[in-house]
Each structure stands twice: as C-alpha cells, then as structure tokens.
Amino acid sequence: MTNAEPQVVPHWIDGREQESTSGRTAPVYDPALGVETKRVALANRAEVDAAVASARAAFPAWAETSLARRQAVVFRFRELLEARKSELAEIITSEHGKVLSDALGEISRGQEVVEFACGLAHHLKGEFSEQASSGIDVYSIRQPLGVVGIISPFNFPAMVPAWFFPIAIAAGNTVVLKPSEKDPSAALWLARLWKEAGLPDGVFTVVNGDKEAVDGLLEHPEVRSISFVGSTPIARYVYENGTRNGKRVQALGGAKNHMLVLPDADLDLTADSAVNAGFGSAGERCMAISVVVAVEPVADELVAKIKDRIGGLKIGDGRRGCDMGPLVTREHRDKVASYIDVAAADGASVVVDGREVEVDGEEDGFWLGPTLIDKVPTTSRVYTEEIFGPVLSVVRVPSFEAGIELINRGAFGNGTAIFTNDGGAARRFQREVQVGMIGINVPIPVPVATFSFGGWRDSLFGDTKAHGAEGVRFFTQLKAVTSRWLDPSHGGINLGFPQN
Ligand code: NAD
C-alpha cells in the first residue's frame, strides 16, 4: 500500500454516490494479492434513514409508471449489462477472488432474472371471475409493496442481489440494497448501470454497512420486506427480527450439500462433477458440493479419480486463467484450513492437503488449495459444520437407503445431487430426500430463473423462495376486487352477510 488515503466505497442514494458521514469503515481486500485495496463505508442509522427516505420518496411515481415503461427500463438495463459485463467481472474478481470466467458465469445467472423481469407483465396478470355472484364480478390485482430491502452475502456480489432486484423493480417497488462489506463495489457498478438505463433516482439505492445497517433496515417502519441471503445464524436473526417488525421476510441460509453416488454411476462424469462443484469458486458457493456420499463399493475408485483430477487444477490469481482463486479473506482461509487438522484428529484420512498447494499468484494471497478428505466420521465438525471453502469430504455408506437417511438427518436442506444410471433410484431419491433443490446427474442444481431458488430446513427461513413465480408473489401484494355496476333490480335493504 502507498501512503495515499485509500478509496472509500460510498453509498448510492438519490441516484448518486454519497460519502459516508458515520466515520466508520471496513477494509476491502484483493484476495489474490492479499492486500487492502479500498475501504468501505459502514452506515449509521441516519444514513440508513436517508437511504430509505429517498426510496420512499421515489416509490409513488415509480409505482404509477406503466408496467410497459418499467419493463422497458429493465430491458435497457439488460442490454447494458450484456454489453459491459466484463467490467463487472473484473470488479468481482478483484474483491472476491473468484476466477474471471466464474465471475462472468455469476453475472449471466443474474442476467437470467433480469430477462425474466423483462416479461413481468405476463406474471402480473390478475384473475377474473365473471358473474361470481349475481351481477357481481370478482378479480385480483397484484400491487407493489413499497420500499423493499435486500441484504446480500459476499460470495455472489452480483448474482444474489440480482435474484431479487429485477423483479422487485419491474413490479413497481423501490429497492434498498445492503451488499456484503467484503466486496461492495459490484453493487455500486450496478447502481450506475441502472441510472444509465433510465431508472429514476431513488428506485435503486445502495447503503453499505454491517450489522448496524442491517438492523436499521430490519427496524425501519417504511421497509416493507427483507430478502436476505447469508449464513444460517444471521438468516435466522434476520427472519426473527424482520417478522417481529411486521415485515415480509425471505431469509436464505447456509448449506452442506451432499452428492450421493450409486455403484452404477459413470464414475468419470461423477468425479468431474465432484471436482467442479466442490472446488469451483474455491468452494465458496451455497450450492457447492461439500460431501460426497459414496455407496460401496465405489469409494476407492471414486476417491482415486477425484484425487487425480485435483492434481490437474491450476490454482492462482483469477486474472491469470487459473481454475481456482483464493479465499475471500485471510481470516476465512485460516478458519477453513483449520478443519484439515480437525479431520486428522477425528480419524479421517486427508488424501489431498490444500495447505501444500503451489500457486500462480502473489505469496500473500489468501490461498488454500483443493483438499480431499476421505472416511470422514459423521460426528466430526468437518462433517457437521458448513466449512465454505475448497474442502471436499467423502463419507462411505453401505446402501442407497443409508445415503438418503444421512442426507435427511442433517440440519441444512439447500441442494443435493444423485449420480446414477438408474432412473428408478433417481426418482425415489427425488421423492424422499428432504432438500429444496435436487440434481440428477447435475451437481449444482441451481434452477433457471423461471423456477424458484431456495432450500428447506435451516437453509431457508420464511415461506417464499427467490425469483420465478415465488419472487413475483414476494414482491407484490394481492388485492381482490368485488364489483357490481348498478342494476336497478338489485337494490333494497338486506343486513345479512352477502351470499351467492
Ligand atoms: P454472512 O451471514 O456473514 O453475511 C451476510 C450478510 O449479513 C452480509 O450483508 C453481512 O453484512 C450481514 N451480517 C453479517 N453479520 C451480521 C450480524 N451479526 N447481524 C446482521 N447482519 C449481519 O454471510 P457471508 O459470509 O457473507 O456469506 C456466506 C454464507 O452465505 C454461507 O453460509 C453461504 O452458505 C450463505 N449463502 C447462502 C445462499 C443460499 O441461497 N442459501 C446463497 C449464497 C450464500
């Protein structure tokens, strides 16, 4: 670092950058270099209030804007994003560390939701019952909520906010986004793009911060809903406090995703998939595979194939064409690495130790190579806790039934996959497994934007998932209209409850 004052990532309020007055900031690192490159503003309550006030002021005119015009703005945003996404990918890589191709992948999955929102008029159509009662028609309309809050995690600084804001905005709401303080610049870039697309000031607002900003949103009476994604303890906290304050809340939490491998599976495809889903984005994906559940007798052969593939991976700076980048912070890298000692102490077999990795990158980067641990006891913290790094565990089970039983016993229920050539087994898996998103020979079953994303159990608090039809429901409130146009034959006094 030079002696120059570091850049402070500001807020975006009223359609422009606004410097923080809180006096609090946090460091933002380039994880591949291992150095602090910027700082980020941490909002106080007054700044959260200013952000919400701006969003509240923008709401009536935006909600009044025709659906066709709102969609046209979203469409222009889509065109700009498509043309300029490499800029955004570079920002993501420089603060998160994921390789550039993966950053582009994240953007394209977020863009899918933008594209879905371009056709929102279709999803906002109401229902109509003619002559539901004598002379009476009944119909439903969906209206926006008002100011909606989004609180996002570090691991997808563009895609996760984009699970929510395109639908929220197209539906006529105004959005206040509180991105992760670890990689906040993507949100600012998106805000500038919205402005360029013609979105009125105040419709998309970014307030940077930590717990204080989150609490400010959870307690603010003008914030009508909260869409949260992050770790399970914070998701639970956000759900409990948001609902206590009368808000609609969807809070997506952590994960520990299992991949069940049956003896009839194609083991080369399976090993490729385990490596891709276990080590892509350095395992910092909520849909990463972290446990391979091998139904015997496949384990020895499968572990050998996975080990072989790990040997071919290039680890290093995401801007240098590597397969896998660093972890997000030094502290997180150290925590993830500490599980390798836990594994050894608990009697597991460390097949590949990521601490010994050679990297194509700066020495101080937050590196940890792909780690493969076999024969992990299910009582070990390596198995029970979400590690959120490039550590792939293998648990050996005697049967298909034992595999399903193991998956259903865990606390999380985000995603899971089965690898098999037996359609009957796959169908039974799909029916019996208590998990929200299922892959059949697909290791990371993130549903496309027309479907909805979200887990079960401790992976989702609330009853509404992200995007697709559930996203439309979340960001609108339903009104039912009962209408009668005067007909002289239906007059008269009747104090009874209206009947059909
Ligand atoms: P995190 O829970 O630490 O942070 C998420 C958000 O909560 C951030 O904006 C952060 O500023 C805020 N926050 C942190 N501590 C807080 C506190 N004490 N009070 C109030 N707000 C607080 O999560 P993370 O480390 O940024 O992201 C990784 C986690 O997110 C993993 O557990 C991962 O599984 C999960 N995740 C889940 C999904 C999903 O769809 N279920 C998707 C992506 C990530």
Structural features, described:
The longest helix has 30 residues. The model has no long low-confidence stretch (mean pLDDT 97). This protein has 15 helices and 23 strands. The protein folds into 2 domains: 270 residues, Aldehyde Dehydrogenase, Chain A, domain 1; 184 residues, 3-Layer(aba) Sandwich (Aldehyde Dehydrogenase, Chain A, domain 2). The strands form 6 sheets. The chain has a 7-stranded mixed sheet with strand order 15-16-17-14-13-19-20, sandwiched between helices. It is α/β, with parallel strands linked by helices.
Q: What is the name of the CATH class of the largest domain?
A: Alpha Beta
The shape, in one word, is globular
> Helix content range of the residues, please?
25-40%
Gap between N and C termini: 76 Å
CATH topology of the largest domain: Aldehyde Dehydrogenase, Chain A, domain 1
**Over all CA atoms, what is the radius of gyration?**
25 Å
Query: Helical region count?
Result: 15
Average of per-residue pLDDT values? 97
Poorly predicted tracts of residues: none
Bound molecules: nicotinamide-adenine-dinucleotide
Q: Report the portion of residues in β strands.
A: 15-25%
Q: Mind telling me which CATH architecture of the largest domain this is?
A: 3-Layer(aba) Sandwich
Question: How many structural domains?
Answer: 2
CATH superfamily of the largest domain: Aldehyde Dehydrogenase, Chain A, domain 1
Structural class: alpha/beta
- How many β-strands, per DSSP? 23
Instruction: Order the strands across the largest sheet as they lie in space.
Output: 15-16-17-14-13-19-20
What's the main sheet like? 7 strands, mixed
